[in-house]
Every structure is written in structure tokens, then in C-alpha cells.
Amino acid sequence: MQRAYYGGPILQITAEDLDGTIFVAKYISEEELFEYTRNRWIYNETLQLSIRYLKLDLRQLLEAAVKAVSSNDPYSFWNPHLFVSRSQSFQCREGLSNKVLILTMDNDMEVVAKLPNPIAGPGYYTTASEVATREFLRDVLDIPTPSIIAWSADRSNPVGAEYILEEKVPGTPLGQLWYRWPMKSRRNMIEQIIQIERRLASATFSSIGCIYFKDSLPENALSGSIISSTLSLRPSAADRFTLGLLVSNDLWRGERANMSMNRGPFRGPLDFVEAMAKNEFLYTKEYARPYMNYHRSSTEAQLPDKFLRLLRQYLDLSPDMVPLKGAEDTHSPTLWHPDLHLDNVFVDPETHNISQIIDWQSAAVMPLYYQRAIPRMFEHPSGVPCGWTMALPENYNDLDQDEKDKFESDRKSIACQKYYEVETRVHNPRHVAAFQLQDLDVRIDPSRIVVGAWEGEAIFFLRRAIYRIVDQWESLCPGLGPCPIGIKAKDLELHASEEEISSSVAEILTLFRDAWGLPPDGMVHPADFERVKAAVAEQRDAFFESADNETDKELYKRIWPCQGKQK
What predicted TM-score, i.e. pTM, was given to this entire model? Predict the structure, then answer.
């Protein structure tokens, strides 16, 4: 977290870890505030920083906050008789997709200003959808989210950026408390989250898309349908909300932002599945250019025509990418939190009750089977053994204290996941039914991978997902006759060769993740940057030297994962 006292063109920034430990204090210019400084990248850093750079008129933002807090608008949660003349200080928190300023007024009121970075997605729709979604959650589903004071989705406003002004969240981020809590408190939190998920699962919608206020969308973008097919909405709510296009950044990245693509709303799962491939068809024909894919060939370029053929195979199989329906409703579109982790849940540190759930940006209404997931905060990072408890290892008494602490931490983590699974089975049958769908990942992986597959160099993974359906056709689609697509022996041979190289690269990335927590995009904490970058360079050199000959060495240089994009 960063604290800044605004006194003109110079800002004093104090950065803190979430536990309050100060690790740097310095003066910066206002221009530096626009830059992203929370993390660094060991490759492609210029690109990563550029898509998180956000310029704004700071004085205009402060004026907007003062005006909102001092307003007599009954929509405001502030006392309308309290007058605020100026903002005396602010703090800045950087997320991967947003810049968040905590503004302190001269009467000690605090307002949070949230501004999406370019990487968050289409600024207008991302902001408008988040505001409407949070209002729907609060007003219709009674799920606690921060109250919104004012907002603007129009970048041409005086601030020069989209923004949301909201109440400061009461309570403490769960991440500061979770690992100090006894299991009784953890189980209580799991039960609270399951009740919130049950409320989400209780509302099924008429279409796939994102939630908006009706007056936020142009008429040609409205779904023209009721927002929910299961809730008894007050007329005011039914008239206020609608479903509109999806805001996922993948659908808007680069040239896509200016293309006329089908981003929803969609009437059903098959419409969605087909649209994802048809959008890629449009993009590929317009913008794709040959490039070298050294995982597949050192001499022949990856051609757009071959990718288009793969997309046609996808479309031939698209009806079979929708899972079969069961007794429980797993297919109706349902709103879900996009990434529920410990720091997105705020709790009262005394009662251990949830006070707010934050970060609903880009939340979408999708078929429940697309949303099914154990919340990241409860999911054990590796395999979970059978039974309720982990058996002590035979050499437990010989372990040092750090190893025993690690075992105890894993034991609690596994117990939390198991408790979540059992309680969900009791209290949220729709969610359980989605977990129990047979071969679900095989069916839905192609539609998850296809968006951006060409420029994201994910063609191999899309092809592998399609081949898995072909390989398992008889068990996936019994009684439907032969598979509608065939795969030539030469294509299988090429794919097997590419898979061998891709598996080697995956092993390298796994090594980096396990050793330094390094994700595939190379993001690290600034304090670890030099150390991790040097260690990766050492591994790279050793990898190159392991080649049997110069030809292999040149190939190894081409396929090394942690380097800038070549095309």
C-alpha cells in the first residue's frame, strides 16, 4: 500500500506490505504515480508496464471525490450535512488490473477511488458492468459489496479515466488473519462463503453475458430479455438491469477492440461456444500473419490457413462441447465471483464475520458448469489424499521444525478443501452437480482456449483439446455415430513431436514456479527481481549447454520460454 500527501507536483509515497510493514518511502512526481511499480517482469517488462500505465488528472479526481462526498444526493451513503472542502491525503494500492486510491478528506472521511488499467478490458463496458453487477449483488441478492458513491465510465470526463468512487471497506483482508486462525474459525468462514455461493446459485438468468444498467447500453446492445428467470424481482429492479456483452480482456485485446465481434449476450451455451470460434475466424482472416513456431517446425512457418482449418474442426465439434444435462440444473447462466481469494474477502477481526466481498470486475453470467471451481482461498495447491486427515509420515520424528510446520500447514489446507467440498454437497446441490459432470474439462477446454489462440501462441493447446474430443468420441457421444472430423496420420505425428517439445518447456516453467513462485509471464516482486533474473539466466545457459549439437542448441534458444516475443 502507498500513502501520498498531496501538496502540488511532488507526492510523498510510503509503500507497505499488507501486514503494515513499511519497506520503502520516497518522493515521486505526479507522473510516476501513473506508472505501475508493484511488480516487475524478467522479460517483456516494457510491454507489461505499458498496459498498466494509467494517466489521469489527479486534481480533477480529488474534486470529483469532494463533490460526491459533499453531495445531498440521497444515493450517497454519506451524511449529506457534512461538508468537505478538500482532500488532504491519499493512499495508492496497485492491483494487476486497477489503481486504487484511498482519499482522506479534511473531515477525516475516506473514499476509495478505483481506476481500471488498460489491461482490465474495455474501459467503458468494464466499469459500467462492474457498477451494475455490484448494485445487483447488494440490492437483489443481499451479498455485501462496497457501496458506490459516484462513477464514470466515460474516459472523456475531466479526470481523463474511468473511475468508481466507493466507501472504504470496513474490516480486515482475510489474508492477514487466515493463517493465524484456528480450524474452528476457518470452518466458520468456509460456511459463510458457501452460503454466499448458494445465493449466487439461486439466481439463474435468461442469457449469457454481463450485467448492466439498461440506461448504460445503447439500444442495439441490449439483450431485450429479463435479467433473471428464477428470482421474483421488484419491478424497479427488473426495469433497471439487463444483460449485455462480455468484458473479458481476451475478447477486446489489441485489434479486437475495434472489430465488430459477437461478445454477447448469448441465448445459450452452444451460441457462446460457436461465437468464440467465429470471432477468431474474423480476426485471423483480417490480421493473422505467418510466424515461426519452433515447437512445431524449424523450417516451416505457422500459417493462418492451417489455423482456419483447425477452427472449422472446432465448429464441427461445437455441439459436443456442451455437456449433457443431468437431473440438477447445471446449464442455466449464473453469476459467480471471478477470483475469490483471501484478499478479496474483508472480515470483522472480532466476530470473524464477512463484512464485504470485493473485486467483482469482469464478473460474468455464464453456464454454471463454466463457473464451477473451488475458491482459490480453500483449494489445496497440490493433490488431496483420500480420507479426512493426512497420515503422519513414517519419518515424522526425524523432520526438522520447518518440515513439521510445512506438514501441519498442508494438513490444515487439505482439511479446509475437504470441508468445503462436504459442506457444498449439503448446502449447494447445483454447484455439486456441476462438479460431478463427466468429462467436463474435455468438453469445455476448446472454448476456453480458442480466444486469442493465434497471437497468444496457444494453437498447440487448442489442437490438443480438439484431439482429446476426437480420441474420446465414443465415450463422450455414445450412439451418435462416427466423429464428424478425422485426423490424418501426418497431423498426429506433427502434433506428437510438438507435444514433446511443449512438455519440456512446461517442465522448465514448473521448475521456475516451484523454485521462485515465478508465473509463465515472468512477474516477480521488485525485491526479488535481480536474484530471480540471475537464477533464470543461469538455468537458461545450462539448458543451452545441454544440447548435443549446434542444431539442437539453436533450437533450444528458440524455444526457451522466458524471452520476449519474436513476432
Answer: 0.89
